[in-house]
Records
---
Amino acid sequence: MTFLLEPLTYQFMQRGLLASVIVGVLCAVMGTYVVLRGMAFLGDAMAHAILPGVAIAYIFKGDLLIGAGVAAVVVALIIGFFSKDGAVKEDTAIGILFAAALSLGVALISTMQTYAVDLSHILFGNVLGVSPSDLWLIGGLSFAILLIVAVLFKPFLVISFDPVLAATLRLPAELLRNLMLVLLALTVVVSLQTVGVSLAAAMLVTPAATAYLLTRRLLPMMLVSALIGALSSVIGLYLSYYLNIVSGSAIVLTATLFFLLGFLWKRMKSI
Amino acid sequence: MKKIFNSIFVILILAALFLTGCGSAPQSSDGALRVLTSTTFLADIAQNVAGDRVQVESLLPVGIDPHAYQASPSDVAKISESNLLIINGMEYEQFIESLLENAGGEHLVIKASTGLEPRQMEENDGETESGAGSEHEAGDPHMWLDPNLVITYVENIRDGLIEVDPGGAEIYKANADAYISQLKDLDAWIVEQVNSVPAERRLLVTNHEALGYFAERYGFEVVDTILPSFSSEASASAQEIAAAVEAVKSSGAPAIFLGEVENADLANQIAEETGVKVVNDLYLESLTDGAPAAMYIDMMKHNVMRIVDALK
């Protein structure tokens, strides 16, 4: 028991654990859409795409996180616009937008004369540096996003997998698709800010991909993915404490291990 | 399954909160005073003031680029268990700000640069700099590269140590005075070295704005900085590189100076264009493990020697 409790005598470990579990569950649930729609590098792309928003917020002395959030939503909507009616695939649109936004951000920052240490890094959190207000932010936002996903579960399912049925039901498919992209964008920004890029990007893909190996039905997939996300966070953080390695990496590697186990299990079963 | 797991998790958290509530918050087990600094050179300066009475530790290890630093749990535990935390201030520690703020524990935080007036970046054309006094509007944090300003660091550190350990006040005062006189010797030595460089050759071209205070104190002119910013996310435009080439040519600056961890590609490019030397082994933000910059004073001497040799 002391083995489990000792790390939790530190407040930063308590908050780190809560934050990584919340982010793990949120990203893992949203990640099922990411994996199923083939947008695996959305997380990494979004981390760069928010740069112009951060730079503009900095120039106008606004809140950097709000700048990042606005940039992410705008980028998500433009991705939605370009990939409308299959003009280009979503992942292609992400690729174009992310490179353009990153370049715009670098250009903006390079014209500013400032001592500001590395603007983008101001935003990139560390699991061990989560503040109480960060916890409220991700807790509240995760609740809101997961609630919307729960309420719109059926419509999201239909527009993702059965466009014909969506048309028959007269669902506002474009609106729903854009809403989903915006929810994903917000998920990424909040996760970046609290737990950092590598962790957010991995949590958006690895648990969902693992769940995809085990089941193809959306609801079970989401639940398995959330469980893997939460377990990876807890196990990873404990490993990081006892082996004294960087926490984000430990969590990502734990999630990867789950994926490998899932992959092996799948192989064994099919033989 | 998920429910079971969730309830186990909640129980764990509650148990932990209960335990910390009972006052078993982490304390140094041996009761010794724990002093932690953000960087290696601050640790050396603080160690000189603390003497044998207290062991000072640095959060960042030797020779690491602060931006590449990732904390492990034991690093953060060091922060929360420290009694006195010494940082540079002037937003130099932004990269670890969230860790410093949220590590928990009870400690006094001393900003070593408290009381010093920062220099602002030159060439502000005012477009982006309306509304001064924003929280991000700190000046150049590289004050430690002028030993005279480090005297203020020493005084702040001394006062911080006395506040957490009043019993050692006399020792800290004596140590601080001794170290301040070493810093004054260092200053005199630097002036002497710099005097061997002809006045018209005291020209510095640097990668980013790091040597501003140093230049001001010892009569150097900073001809150009390749990256007009402290942000490593910034890159130079073609025009800026061209301007740097022109500035080097027209000023006759003999060399370009870089910190040891900085990327020398652009500097090499400009050096090739202009035929000047590139000196890329200055230690500006970290000490080294052993020679040449094992201590702050060694670090300064090494940098001055490299600069003077290149400019003579």
---
Amino acid sequence: MHAQSVKTSQTFSIASKLSHAYQAHSYRIAVVSRFLAAIVGGYVFTAVFSSLLSIILPLKKSDAVLLSISLTIFIYSCVFIWVFAVKSLTKIWITILLTTTGLALILSLLKGWL
Amino acid sequence: MKENFFRSMTWMHTWVGLLVCWLLYLIFYAGTLSFFRDEITLWNQPALHNVQTTDTRIAQQKSQIIAGVKYLQNVAADSQRWGIYLPTQREPQLNYAYEKPRPEGKRFGGWQEHNIDPSTGQTIAQTRETKGGNFFYRLHFDLHYIDVLTARWIVCLASLFMLVALISGIVIHKRIFKDMFSFRANKGSRSWLDGHNVSSVLALPFHLMITYTGLITLIFMLFPYPAMTAYEDGVRGLFNDVLPTNVRSKSSPESAPLANIEGILDHVYTNWPDADLTQISIRDPNKASATITVRASTGTMLRDQTPTLLFNGVDGSLIAKSATELTNTEVFYDSMTALHTGRLANPLLRWLYFLCGIAGCVMIASGCIMWAKRIRERMKKQQTASFGLKLVEGLNLATLMGLPLATCAFFIANRLLPINVAERADKEILAFFLTWLAVALFALFKRATAQWIQLAWLNAVACIAVVLINALTTDGNIISYLLNGQWALFSVDFLCIIFAGLFVIQAKKIPTRAQPKAQRQSSRRAAKTNLQEQQ
């Protein structure tokens, strides 16, 4: 009984330490998370989106690829700016994850990877 | 991220810019110099200084190629690759090159070059081993001393930050037209902001174009996925589809006589009657798998893909030719690379490219200086500078004043190192980086205005030294270049003198601590030249 309560209080103190640490550095963590969303999230989104574009554009194969490749940087920078323009970090991550997964799903269905 | 869009963009502009500004400065600096890549290479090669371009340059090409094949057949019949590089407007010498035997496990053995003066037909002796303008060209996207692929990823990330900073910079700019004409002098960091705005806005289309197209030049490394999705064998599949002359046959060990070059040239000239040929490359000469590629200049067309004809090297038949009519998308893609490299530029446009590049350097330099100035201005009297501020100030001094000094050291090393010293080209580059390192170490200890002044003087002396040492160690000097109309060489020396002058103005105009406050704030001219000098 006594031992258990010690254990709970220990876990509690670790949790509270973590939450303290989070509160102390929450701003920094939020900034890092935002940069990650912009750089990594934006990259993966662009990769999937441009790949999808390269097979659905109604152009000659080589033209479709060249056009989607030429547009990648534009898409990437738009996502990047959007990540910094939106206030809620949760909304950003959810949007990026959902759209990327959705696009990847369509891409795999079209290519017959699934 | 902040309470409104405007503030979020301002925050992002500041931090995205500051994080990579020194690397971006290096990229812009080296890229700007690379617009004069051939001219710098020529300057670094005094043996080629007196080679003149002839009026009959294009008419001579046919006989030069035939003589080249004869020469290479005599000296390097067993080599795996031959190259004949014909004189161009910017590179006056004729070059017959062949690949040296490949060391175990290497894919390329390096070129053995044989330079010829096209007007006399004489071999040019005593060329020195130097990278010349190619050093800056490579530094621009491969950096140095680190793995090429890693370097390119870093450069790509920095360029993306640059593009994002440019776009957010436009967004947060409320009075974009008015700022083109406003410069408020004597206002501390306000003047730096105006300098930042003027240099950004005046050359804004260039900045956007050069950053976007720069990323496009490395796009197959950055985003190979569309090509991988659409083609079985990815990027290679795309290239084979778009560039018919890209096909490569497997090397065969069987020997077979090389096709008659005159017959091939007849074929070339019926296809392209007034062609300005640039290079002939022959793979596997005297083998059954021999191919001969003939390339012509794109001239001043907005085209990166050179017109190419690919011949079978045994029977002389045409295997493939580059597309003459590109589709709209191909034109869109291809023109972006052409815009970035600026190979199409005539001298006037080349200078415009160079000036816009300088505006880019000024934009980056004024941005990072402004950040430090603002923090300093906001600090209370007895407050000590934070680590971050010291770091930024140190990096500012090391980068902005170190790079020009390192460049001077590179040019001086080119003239002073003995011609036959081993690994000469690498030693020139070592001189560049050692000088830069020395400035960085100096900036590590002290980075106040006094150090800016000292380094400005040092830079001015170094710039003049380049011109003087050139005059003392070679046959020519800035005056003889002017009299003989050797404009490429004259431009290099002339720019050194201009920059020396700007550095002197900078050294004179930087306010020192001892002066009263009214005088301390720099005048309009000083603020402007300060910016320019930091090229």
---
Amino acid sequence: MQEVMKKRAIELLSDGTVAKVIGWMPGEFSYDMTPAVFTTAEEIESNFVYNDFCGANVSKYVMREQKKASDAKILVFLKPCDTYSFNQLTAEHKIVRENVYVIGVGCDGMADVEKIKAAGIEGITGIESDGDKFIVKTVYGDETIARADALAERCAACKSKKLTVYDEIIGEDGEVVENSGRFDLVAKLEAMSADERFEFWRNELSRCIRCNACRNVCPACTCEQCVFDNPKSGIDQKAAADSFEENMFHIIRAFHVAGRCTDCGECSRVCPQHIPLHLLNRKFIKDINELYGDYQAGDDTESKHPLTSFTYDDAEPSVIHERGNE
Amino acid sequence: MQVNEQFTPTIVAFCCNWCSYAGADLSGTNRLQYPANVKIIRVPCSCRVNPMFILRAFQRGADGVIICGCHPGDCHYTTGNYYARRRTTLLFSMLDYLGIERNRTRVEWVSAAEGAKFAATMNDFVAQITELGPNRRLEDLRCRK
Amino acid sequence: MMLYLAKDKLDVFFEKASEKLNVYVPVDNTNGSAYRKWTPGTVVSKGLHTTKSAKDFFFPQTENLVEFKMSGKAIEIIDPRRETEDYAVFGVRACDVRSFGILDKVFLSDPVDTYYKNRREHGLILGLSCGRPAETCFCGTFGIDAAEPMADVDFTEADNGYYIKANTEKGEAFVASLGDIFEDRDAAPAEEAKAKTREVLKKLPLSNLTTDGFGGDKLDELFDAAGWADLSEACIGCGTCTFVCPTCQCYDIRDYDTGHGIKRFRCWDSCMFSDFTKMAHGNPRLTQKERFRQRFMHKLVYFPANNDGEYGCVGCGRCLASCPISMNIVKVMKKLAKEDSGK
């Protein structure tokens, strides 16, 4: 895969189709790739990598690069879930689609080094993919782990392997996954009592250190200035000085992306405290699906999102109060 | 003095200018009683109510928040309350999901002619919040007096 | 000879210690660990690092400095400071132990930060030498020996127990006060364990990382280095690296209006944030490149320039493990050093 991608990137750069390539550069331990922008064939030749650990959603970098120079032609490699974010950004006029050459990259799920570490493998110096398993080189000797066991949590409940936007495809395009099980945990929480839910979320959200990684990485968080950074908003906060602020930040953040969140899972991936933030977004998605009909943000660039539209016979807010479990 | 002092909740009511605020006015002119601990905040339309307003009301000491707007179909701006309906539904559902008592929040459609409904709604909501007790789950401890 | 505590007596140790002071131990949570107060039944984490560093004990993420209460025109000023109770922190690794010394240089030099001093003086550090360092560890680069934390009391795991060595008067007094639960044993197994750790340290992928090319006198060369643009390109401007860092010590002071008064509090700030250094006239650090550069220049140039050559990094590797885009001080040092040598 990596070699094909490199070859195409170099071709498109040299024939002038694009001026910049968004990809990944290598890290120290073969699992810590950093997104990067390449402008020459030499850089790509020597420094472009793509492997099972390139999980970062790079669609937001397209927006950033276009902000620097809106007319520069950009090549970007997008995984299926990234294409949803890309579409959503296009729909919100944050990306000029015409100036981007999208190569869709087929995806069978990305690996997560946290899962490998959680399996007790320490001191990782290198990881090689070998069929349905990974051979992990460590300072304490070689280990193997099944690919399924190293699969990122969000990929285990993948909603779609379909590339929703592309100019060409490398690898295989896939299908929307029916019964992905991604709402299972939400349903489990809904079935709990209010006290249990409160305890669950207090335990999770109290770990928040307000590093803002979830917000800054989120492809739906594209405000020029976040309300929590704006001293004129009256609620700007640098730290969660009170449990209320922990709740408020995450409620408002999830609400602001409700209907626009494509469920890419970046928020939970980047959280240094491992707070399952995607469960907040998925709650909104589940509610929207149940109350207003199935909706997948980023499926296309045309449809109106559920919070900027309505029907005359929408459910009344009292449906919440009439639910079974208090 | 009684040992179990009666808890008097603080209620914030966001009322749209065209229907519910006029309804509150009418209930006043009709001399209908509703508790003085309901603090009315007039907004141009129920869809002006940002989720942050609701959270900040709780932060600053509200024990219950009620949003009143025109009946669906009667919005002064034609469609504002339809948007408000979706937003508040989703927000209340999220608060419920986080384990915050769902009955601390309510939406009620009150027209300018429904002075009696306004008073009855407020009396009912105050009774409901009194029974629930003070807001502890969505409270900012720094603001407690 | 050395004092020894069998593993199955660790709980007895915590129980005895808890009679004298509050004991905090690392406890596992979702995919990480954090310090919690020990109570009977607490299971101590076997992990290498807590997700956040131990600096919270002395320099918490938020703390109230002063309160003002208004009633009419009268303003009452309340000092919320209380003398901290004595406490001990168990399981602190060598890198974190060193970080306290770095924080001391900032907070205990004139003018002394009394909030920090209060917490520091009441804290007792129980170090734990590393047995299985991670690939992200590079404490050796800064002259730290992971086998010898040099805390008030050091614990070294060996021979199905812990070998104990007090390094300070405070530590000696603490150990003496619990005296009868330890036994005297030959120190050979402890030395063996340390030697083994040092062998592993040599094999770590970052063991060859050096500070060559960095230091207090390198300002001019490094400030305008070409590498910063590329290195900072993918940075998303979150504060993860600064908040998990044991040595980052920047803070902001804010007033919170409670509706009936003011609470003035201090909270961690991050040079990665866009409003850091924002002043009345604007912000001198306009792009992420300047903010990003600041963090590493502070650790590798400004700090040693003001503190007799001591670097502001201890090589704990937390930023390597938690950066959302896997950019970190190691990549910065390697790239800049390469650039420097290429000149």
